[in-house]
Amino acid sequence: MARSDNITLRGKVTGTKGSQFLIECDNGVEVLAVHSGWLRKHRIRVIPGDEVLVKVSPYDTSHGIMIQRL
Question: What distance in Å separates the CA atoms of residue 9 and residue 55, rounded to the nearest whole number?
Answer without folding.
Answer: 6
